[in-house]
TrEMBL record:
InterPro entries in UniProt: Ferric-chelate_Red/DefProt, Reeler_dom, Reeler_sf
Keyword Signal on entry: yes
Signal peptide as annotated in the record: 1-23
Gene Ontology cellular component list: membrane
Ribosomal protein as UniProt keyword: no
Name of this chain's protein: Reelin domain-containing protein
Chain segments annotated as transmembrane: 196-216
Region entry Disordered, spans: 162-184
CDD domains recorded: Reeler
Keywords: Membrane, Signal, Transmembrane, Transmembrane helix
Top-level lineage group: Eukaryota
UniProt source species: Gigaspora rosea
Domain annotation Reelin: ranges: 52-152
Amino acid sequence: MANLFVKISLFLLVITIPFYVSAFPTGAGTCDVDAMATQGHGQSSAQGFSTGGGYAITTTKSGQQISISITGGKSVEGVLIYTLDSKGSRIGTFTVPSGYQTKSCTGSSGSTLTHTNQNLKNMPINFMWAPPSGSSGNVTVRAIVVQNFANWLKLQDVSFDPSSGTSSVSNVTIPQSGSTGSDGSDGGIGSWFKNYLLFVILMIIVIILYIVSSVTETMLRNQRAKAKNYRN
């Protein structure tokens, strides 16, 4: 019984590993780049993770839209990118390319993009973004790229003028009125439990199997002891 329990436990652990060594396979686990360490993947192991680590955001004017690009060297598995106005509200609309989807966060429904799969995405990654009609003032782009589950990098914020596309690295702290999910949650224990639900369920199953196997093994030992005493 003990050997059976060990085999089952190892099997359950092995099938969960792919979920926790890569990017979340169907999109970012958080709406906010600043919450990645607590609501998403945990603390990053990547060198220079808080300053981009060689990845950067650039913007250029393209007709009535803005081309927003993520540049860097190594291909990535996951992306979270969104745009904010000067008050911290999500603004504008991304054109959704293949392999990406809008993420449901507070604010403009099309202002946040994330990946739909963990296939490698080569650099540069280009997005088209349109400002809302009648908008004015600079817009800030925030983004994270995920190389694998343990290694993610927060890119330096970039502010740009929608009328010209001219951009610069932003040193302004912007209030995050759009950082919560569409249900108004702000992460914490609830978000952690949601992200690691499969792992939690499997660990509960392992514990139950351990208890059952221990009880069964004890019962079998008692039965063998009784049978031995009976024969004697």
